[in-house]
Give the backbone structure.
Amino acid sequence: MTQGTGRGQPYEGPASAMKDSDWLAVEDLQASGRPHIDLTIERVLLHRNVQFEKGRTEAKKYSLAFKGAEKQLLLNATNRKRLVSMYGGSTKDWLGKRVRLHLEEDKLPAGGRGPCTRIIRCPDQQQPAPPQQQAPPQQDEQPELDGMPSGDDWTEGLP
């Protein structure tokens, strides 16, 4: 006979609660019943000596904390690169930005393929304006060089 099972109590909550973790996981998105979740980045955090399931430890990990969310999203390389592409290389520029979390089929850390939490731009966030390019000079125009007059005037007075 198994000891310690007791009577227990019925549980009908989200399966993600069974995973004892402070990190936002695939199960959290699946349990929401929605295809995506839109969140606002509140903080970017550095964690040291993070211990994961089965005793695996990493010296440093970064995460995103979202306004109104209890759990944080650990930043993997894919999501970090997406944030840099969307909002730039300085994490302070990410603060206050809205992102959409959704599931994509991708390579899993343990090998194989399966659903992964991915960040994409939230539709209500404007894309940055493309850098303005200076129009090339017209064929009959000569570019002005360091304040020198254009055209043939600059040759006057030369020996």
Q: What stands out?
A: The chain is about 10% helix and 30% strand. Residues 15-121 form one domain.
